[in-house]
Predict the 3D structure of the following.
Amino acid sequence: MAVDSFLSARNPEMSLRQKIWQLNWGMMLLLSLVAGVGFAMLYSAANGSFEPWASAQMMRFGLGLGMMIVAALIDIRFWFRYAYLIYFTCLVLLGAVEVMGDIGMGAQRWIDFGVVRLQPSEMMKVALILALARYFHGLSSEEVRRPLLLLLPTFMALTPAALVMKQPDLGTAGMLLLGSGAVFFCAGVRWWKFALLLAAGLASGPIAWQFLHDYQKDRVLTFLNPENDPLGAGYHTLQAMIGFGSGALTGKGFMQGTQSQLNFLPEKQTDFIFTMLAEEFGLVGSLTLLSLYFLLLCYGFAIAFRARNQFARLLALGLTTNLFLYVFLNMAMVMGMFPVVGIPLPLVSYGGTVLLTVMGSMGLVMSCYIHRDMRISRRGTAEA
Amino acid sequence: MLQKNEDNERQRSFSRRALLLGGAQSLLLAGLAGRMYYLQVVEADRYKTLAEDNRINLRLLPPPRGRILDRFGLPLATNRQNFRVVMVREHAGDVERVLNALAQLIELDEHDYKRVLREMSRKRSFVPVTVRENLTWDEVSRVEVNGPELPGVSIEMGQIRDYPFADSMAHVLGYVAAVAERDLTGDPLLELPGFRVGKNGIEQKYDLALRGSAGTSQIEVNAYGRVIRELHREEGKPGDELVLTLDGGLQTFVHQRLMGEKSASAVVMDVENGDVLALASVPSYDPNLFNTGLTVKQWNDLVNDPLHPLSNKAIAGLYAPGSTFKMMVALAALKAGIRPDHRVFCPGYMTLGRSRFHCWKRHGHGWVDMHHGLQHSCDVYFYEISRKVGIDNIAAMARQFGLGEEVGIDLNGERGGVIPTRDWKLANIGEPWQGGETLVASIGQGFVLTTPLQLAAMVARIASGRQVIPRLTRGVRADGELPAAENVPPPQFAPLDLPAEHLRIVREGMDAVSNDPRGTAYRARIKEEGFELAGKTGTSQVRRITMAERAAGVTKNEQLPWRRRDHALFVAFAPVHKPRYACAVVVEHGGGGSTVAAPIARDILLETQHRDPSGRRSLPIVATSQIAERA
């Protein structure tokens, strides 16, 4: 029996019009507002010009918006069915960058298809959540407690994390693990297992330190004491904090940020764009953006709570947590609370793959909302 | 049904945990908000300051160094345009190619070439690197004309100190040179690359006044140090224009006149107000050399030269004054009550104890009074009266005339000399004074040591009867025309504590030296009427004449090696009946005072009177006391 027909029993098909009606317009508005902030900052970063960043980012946002709506309208059972396939595809791509990836920013992160350059590690953040959500959807609350059954998802999370770590991209590897952890946690994995994992992680810390690249060690050490070496590794963090703090309450004004306009800020159009916002719009600006993200996250959580099937719940929660991790790690990084790990600010930082991945994942979250009442059997197979 | 219950349980578990997770995330976001508050409100001021520090660079604008002028406004030290060719790497592209093209047009040695390449690789690409300084006009135009083939190359104009009189003013003006580590006082100007400070002479003494104060330019720079724009500019104050007492023309004349000798010095001064009109020392050096930096060899040559060109012998050369000291003995004797007509018989020597003291005239002068003692420079006469007066009285008189201590001229390196007394000998040598030493001192030998400047001051005091103190600096040039009342008058000096009669006797003795046919310097007199000088010769021994040598006949100076010849001295004032100018000349190892030094002094005093610098209107100035305040 086809999966579709089995699922359809208590889930009457929705028409396209009904689905469009169900699209989460508030969330779309929030996303657009955040992206709008990004456009403004990219315009400022280019000294008051749409070239080279703002216009490209706008086009990508348009593309992302379309992608998001398509992702949202696609039946959630489709995502359920292809979750593993998507995961494996991404895994293969991730392995491929090891072989044929370009060298970008000193790390292998890109794969060139001629037309588009993709960052498989970004896509993996979504694919991994999809695969884990599908896996845990199939486990009963009893089964979740069986350690043996946790081996496979653990392996599913560790494999891409290890590959990404090898690129080396500490930030993304961390995000993959933390995002997976959130799914594990909400799927009902016992507390003590997390405690065990944490202990194991801490114990392996000194060993892992040996495997870090020098620049990664530098970043961690610098984080611990940024003033230590102001013109070396600590320079970025220090200049970012100066830019941030000097914005004060209301900022220096649009396009008036001295730290960013005079290039004291590193990578101001990508990872450090939030510093620029904080410098030009002050506490008012930075808190506003933080609030927009907070509202977005609330939406995500609300959708997760509201969903009637475990797959949608875990998917929405995992993807929302992903968004949270982006925002938190990036902001903590530019404010000197976290080592510089190269995580962009979603929807604001310049960069295609991240924008499209985040828009796509928000599309999936919307899909969870549209198909919130749909019931999916535990194993996704025919069942009496 | 089972499935439904199962799912309800899963949902409850999920909701519980998702709530925890959401709570944790909210807390972390709240933490971010707290951090924002901390950075942007609590610490905002600190970071604002840091951001401004980042952004704004304060650049110093070096002020033009004040010129040094002679008493009439003739520039003695000025600033000359210095054309230098600079190169910017980012515009040049292929640095070596452009440099080779440049070498076709201007002279570039291997050393410059390597230095430029080295600096280019070290400095940021937009920082101009100086390729060569001091381009000639020809070179400047060649570079300008070929501009299109020399990308990144440009001509910049700077200022460099220039001494138009070169050697003849070196000892007075000194020179400027690059700042040394020990010169750093905290004045940020000193840390500017290429900045020069006074290293000697007036340049050093009045360095602060001449330096002026720096202007500032606040510029906004980006993270790479590139200048974005100038935010604020404050012009500095150029250094003061210093007016000296020197007469540039006279100084040149004196220097030229001394150049005939190997090593000599001379001072010309106004007997009324103490203005030093010329102060020269040969051999000299070209102070312009120090601007661009001397090579090690040039420096070593200067330092190791046996004639000491770097030393200003007019203020730092210590010489036994010889017979020029006799005026002091005569005045001390008059003060002690010895009458000018008291006569002494000179048989050519005098015996004291077991020692015999010779007169310069082997067969003696016969009966000699004070006037003739001076006129003939009879040693025995002065032996005799000095024995009566005693060394301490002579020393007191010499002190009153400024001998044996620094006169306090505006130059570093002045030396004091020695006027011996009983106490001095006990303190410095540890032995009691011997009677014979008084006799030796009375003819300006032995322990007595003076500088040419002191001798000039001594003659000026004899001539004017006032406590004249030589000065070299008149003041700072007044901006524009000053009302006559504000123009600082020359100093007035108090009369000496001596009867005018005593001075007259001595002056008449000096008159006879030059203008009486039997005087020791008659051949070096000024014949032009109204310009006659009154002087005193001096010949100071630098060796001891042994009994054996004396018996065989004293060796003539010309037969001795240069180093062992006598110093020749001559001091004089003119015009004889209305004194205005005083002069002292010392020719090291020159031989006799009358034959070598007197003709030089004659030429100098005649030229001085012809020029008459004191009689001409000089440049209006602000008093020297104000220089100190400004500095």
Notes: The first helix of chain B runs from residue 2 to 42.
